[in-house]
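Lab notebook, bench 4. We co-purified these components, and the gel suggests they stay together. Before we commit to crystallization screens, I want a quick structural picture of the whole thing.
Request: model the full complex, all chains together.
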Amino acid sequence: MAWFKKVRTPIQPQAKKESRVPEGLWVKCPSCSEVIYNKDLAATLNVCPKCAHHFRIGAVERLRMLFDGPWDDYDTELQSTDPLKFVDTKPYRSRLDATIAATGMKDAVICATGRIEGIESSVAAMEYSFIGGSMGVVVGEKITRAIERAIERRLPVVIVSSSGGARMMEGALSLMQMAKISAALARLDRARLPYVSVLTDPTTGGVTASFAMLGDVNIAEPKALIGFAGPRVIEQTIRQKLPEGFQRSEFLLDHGMLDLVVDRRELKAAVARALRFGLPADGPARRAPVVAPQP
Ligand SMILES: [Zn+2]
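Here is the predicted assembly.
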């Protein structure tokens, strides 16, 4: 018989204490690793105060940043009908339903009218979190209507792009949107109304290849990825190493593809300046459209 008996019970693992710090209060900058308080980041329009890294922002934040006050939304009920009954890793229908539930939006763009430094404008802002900001039939139709609304009401147009390109789940129907929007922009041009294109990270594929590059003024945010095909595809096609910084805003500005690269904190002022330049104070916007011969 043992003189001593082990009476100790093993130490119980400590019950997990509830963290008193709520999730998502701090954000780490992917560029300089600075830890930033969420509210500070919101105050600087989601630009890192230390290194000026531009975090991606959604369409609603974009409109809030551009407009002076409240705005009017249009065509909020338009929704894709999945015309091709497309299935990849999962059916397009269920992908759409899940994204609509997650984002509260019906498709990847918000079209609105409101005032930018007092200038009434028709603005379309794309939402990257909605299937990569891809342009399907609904995005094409909504942007086209936003341009037509501008022509009708004599307003300038601002489109903020943030997109992976055309939506492959809608096949050729999504590619047709490139021509449709470009044609609407040509009508806007004939009506002598300005169009400012704002390219944000990322602007690629069919969006770059159509309306994003058609602005009277093309403004990009710093270090945004802007291109048509991805660098890997280009390298494989031309069998050459691509230069440093290829497909970034600054590179494109140096090579004459953009007019301006503007920090987000100064973007609203830059857009307003471009609009004022296109719309002189005596107001061509208020005059009847100049009837130009159809090409
Ligand atoms: Zn930073």
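The chain has a mean pLDDT of 91. Worth comparing against the SEC data before the next meeting. The pocket of zinc ion is lined by residues 29, 31-32, 34, 48, 50-51, 53 (CB under 6 Å).
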